[in-house]
Specification:
- The chain has one domain (about 15-235): Rossmann fold, CATH 3.40.50.1820.
- The chain is about 35% helix and about 25% strand.
- The chain has helices at about 45-55, 75-85, 90-105, 120-130, 175-185, 220-235; strands at about 1-10, 15-20, 30-35, 60, 110-120, 135-140, 160-165, 190-195.
- The longest helix is centred in the C-terminal third of the chain and has 19 residues, at about 220-235.
- The two termini are about 25 Å apart.
Length: about 240
Amino acid sequence: MKTEDIIYRDGALEMSGFIAYDETQVCQRPGVLVVHEGWGLGEHVMNRAKILAELGYVAFAADMYGNRRQMSKADDAMAAIAELRANPQKLRTRARAALAALGAHAQVDKTKLAGIGFSFGGTTVLELARDGSDLAGVVCFHGSLDTTAPAAPGGVKARILVCTGADDPMIPLAQVEAFKEEMGKAGAALRIISYPGAVHNFTNPQADGSIAPGLLYNAEADQKSWAAMRAFLAEIFAR
C-alpha cells in the first residue's frame, strides 16, 4: 500500500491531506474522500483511509483546518467546527478543495467519486451533497444533519447513507425527521440506519466517554455501519 501526504490549498490556506491506495494496481479506480471529526485529521480517519485502500479504492483523508491542525481540547474543537458551520459556503468550498485534490490524482477515476465522514466530517460530506457536488454518494457517520443552507429541489446528485446512533444526544429524532423532510423536498435518494444503544462517535475506539457520556465507542454499531458503507459504495460504483 502506498501512503503519502498531499499538499493542496483553499485560497491562501495550505492543507496537508493523506492519501492511501494500492500502488500495484495500474488501472484507475473509484476515489473516496474521508473527512475527519472535529479534532482534526488524525489516526482515526487515516486508518479508515488505509482500510478503504485495502478494499480497492483510492482514499484521501482531507485536512479541513489547514496545516494538519489538530485540537486537544473540546472547546477548541467546538470553536473550529462552529466557525465553518456558521458559513456553509466556506465549509463547502473547503471540502471541494479536498475533493478536487482527490480527483486530480492519477490513480483516480474522476467519474466515480464518493465522500464519507465522521461526526463533523459526516456533516461536511452532507454539505457537499447539498451543494450539488458531482458525487456518486456520501456516507455520514454520526454527523449533525441540520444546516442553515438547505438543499434546493433537484439540487442533490449524490445518493446518501446516514448511519446514526438511536440514542445520540447530539442528533435527536426531531433532527433526523427534519433531515428526511429536507431531502424529500430535494428529491434525494436517502437511506438512514439508526443503531440502538449507540451515541455520538460510535465509530471511534478512542471515544471512551471520558469527555462526555454521549461520546462513546460502540463496537457493534461500528462494525454494522462499516458493513453498510461497504455495500453502499459497491452499489453506487457499480452504476
